[in-house]
């Protein structure tokens, strides 16, 4: 689960299927169920129907924790004033070196950790542009870009659009967080 919407969807799907949700949050759900009525295949099926998967291996758990931490930092905390470097945040949150985290992430996902972070930053930038509350300079600062030019360059490289082109037609260019790669 990589966003609050995923949390709501999964919670509703589990309850609908008679599974009690004890606690649910980004990346983790604690559930109770009658083993005579449901098994792990049932739960896995519910997850897959909703675009999610059961995380079993230790490394898969780390990958999910990385995704959750990146989303928390970029989408929920806004990395206000760029106080926290992304690598420091991940290392502090997960207790492994950035190099270890990056290797584990790349081994299990189709992209590098750095690219995953960049894609999330670009999606957050789109949200901030759409809100029309901040200047591009303020957004660049909030998202830890050294300059507006660097933000604009990376935005164009990832989206194929200039910021101005995006502003003219934003609806067609947003991506759900779970489909960024």
From TrEMBL:
<dbReference type="GO" id="GO:0043565">
    <property type="term" value="F:sequence-specific DNA binding"/>
</dbReference>
<keyword id="KW-0238">DNA-binding</keyword>
<keyword id="KW-0804">Transcription</keyword>
<dbReference type="InterPro" id="IPR009057">
    <property type="entry name" value="Homeodomain-like_sf"/>
</dbReference>
<dbReference type="InterPro" id="IPR018060">
    <property type="entry name" value="HTH_AraC"/>
</dbReference>
<keyword id="KW-0805">Transcription regulation</keyword>
<dbReference type="Pfam" id="PF12833">
    <property type="entry name" value="HTH_18"/>
</dbReference>
<protein>
    <recommendedName>
        <fullName>HTH araC/xylS-type domain-containing protein</fullName>
    </recommendedName>
</protein>
<dbReference type="GO" id="GO:0003700">
    <property type="term" value="F:DNA-binding transcription factor activity"/>
</dbReference>
<feature type="domain" description="HTH araC/xylS-type">
    <location>
        <begin position="68"/>
        <end position="169"/>
    </location>
</feature>
């Amino acid at each position: 689960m990589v966003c609050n919407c995923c949390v709501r969807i999964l919670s509703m799907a589990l309850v609908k299927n008679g599974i009690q949700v004890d606690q649910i949050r980004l990346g983790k759900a604690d559930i109770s169920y009658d083993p005579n009525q449901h098994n792990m295949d049932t739960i896995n099926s519910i997850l897959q129907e909703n675009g999610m998967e059961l995380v079993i291996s230790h490394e898969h758990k780390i990958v999910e924790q990385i995704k959750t931490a990146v989303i928390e930092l970029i989408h929920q905390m806004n990395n206000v004033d760029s106080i926290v470097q992304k690598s420091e945040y991940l290392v502090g949150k997960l207790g492994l070196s950035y190099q270890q985290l990056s290797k584990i992430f790349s081994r299990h996902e189709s992209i590098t950790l750095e690219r995953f972070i960049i894609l999330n930053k670009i999606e957050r930038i789109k949200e901030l542009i759409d809100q029309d509350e901040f200047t591009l300079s303020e957004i660049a600062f909030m998202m830890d870009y050294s300059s507006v030019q660097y933000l604009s360059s990376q935005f164009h490289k990832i989206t194929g659009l200039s910021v101005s082109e995006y502003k003219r037609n934003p609806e067609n260019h947003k991506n759900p967080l779970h489909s960024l790669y």
